[in-house]
Specification:
The protein has a single domain, classed as MetI-like (MetI-like fold, Orthogonal Bundle). It contains 14 helices and 2 strands. The chain has helices spanning 2-34, 39-42, 54-59, 62-95, 100-112, 122-131, 138-162, 166-174, 179-190, 192-208, 211-216, 224-229, 239-259, 261-272; strands at 232-233, 236-237. A hairpin with a 2-residue loop joins strand 1 (232-233) and strand 2. The protein is globular.
Length: 275
């Protein structure tokens, strides 16, 4: 009886998992389908249409290549700066000689900086950038995104570092290793999954960021989300073309997420959810 119940339950759970997966990914699937429609076929919604590559030919222009390059440049440098500085900050908080209460306060300060909504600082930041003549600059986006993502890295890596006994550093010091050598040869291999998941989150948040990009760039440094918004015109919304751009834009996060899913899941479950 138990074996029969197991044979019936297992296929049902598998089908239920597939159904939930399809339902969860339906917006993404419909977006990809829409990218192959003509603008006249987008509304009303329909799954019966003649596929066309017209939208991709329209959006894949030399101008689009500059937007892609801007996004790649800003994202890569933001990841490097955020991970390096965030890792250094978390390491200092955990392994410094500060009192536990001061360590907790400093960590709490890092984490709570992300609670400030971007719209609350857009005006003063704009005035500062205008006075410094740094509007429409990739460096500006890199600095803003790095400042916003460093607390995320600190929050992610902090829990991993807290789980490492300080005796490991003492043992490395007795063996003649400096703090720098101990960090790269002992600490970093132990928290590599946390660093990888942090870098992936920084990539996703930076790649998709729109508010600062559209507020502080215009021509030379605009990213993919800004290019996508250019198809929202007074003549109407070009849904098919926006879907084509969105399909191209989501490919890098999906591919990286698929390749690093084991490290990402391990990093989220072992580090970030612990106090």
């Amino acid at each position: 009886m138990r074996s029969l119940r197991k044979n019936i339950t297992r296929p049902f759970l598998i089908l239920l998992a597939y159904a939930v997966g399809i339902l969860y990914s339906f917006p993404l699937i419909y977006m990809v389908l829409t990218s192959f429609k003509k603008e006249s076929e987008v509304t009303p919604p329909s799954f019966i249409f003649t596929p066309t590559l017209e939208n991709y030919r329209t959006v894949l222009t030399p101008e689009f290549q500059s937007f892609i390059w801007n996004s790649v440049t800003v994202t890569v440098f933001t990841i490097l700066i955020s991970v390096v500085l965030g890792l250094m900050a978390a390491y200092t908080i955990v392994f410094s000689r500060m009192q536990p209460q001061k360590q907790n306060n400093l960590f709490f300060w890092f984490v709570t900086t992300n609670l400030l909504p971007p719209v609350g600082v857009v005006v003063p930041i704009y005035l500062i950038l205008k006075n410094l003549q740094m509007l429409d600059s990739k460096l500006t986006l890199i600095l803003l995104y790095s400042g916003g993502n460093i607390p995320l890295v600190v929050w992610m890596v902090y829990s991993f570092l807290k789980e490492i006994p300080k005796e490991i550093l003492e043992a490395a010091s007795i063996d003649g290793s400096s703090r720098t050598t101990a960090f790269f040869k002992v600490i970093l291999p132990l928290i590599k999954s946390g660093v990888a998941s942090s870098a992936l989150l920084v990539f996703v948040f930076t790649w998709n960021e729109f508010f600062f990009a559209v507020s502080f760039t215009s021509v030379q440094s605009s990213t993919i989300p800004v290019y996508m918004a250019s198809f929202m015109t007074q003549q109407g919304l070009f849904w098919a073309k926006m879907s084509a751009i969105s399909t191209i834009a989501v490919l890098p996060p999906i591919i990286l997420g698929w390749l690093s899913q084991k490290a990402f899941v391990r990093g989220m479950t072992m580090g970030a959810v612990k106090g």
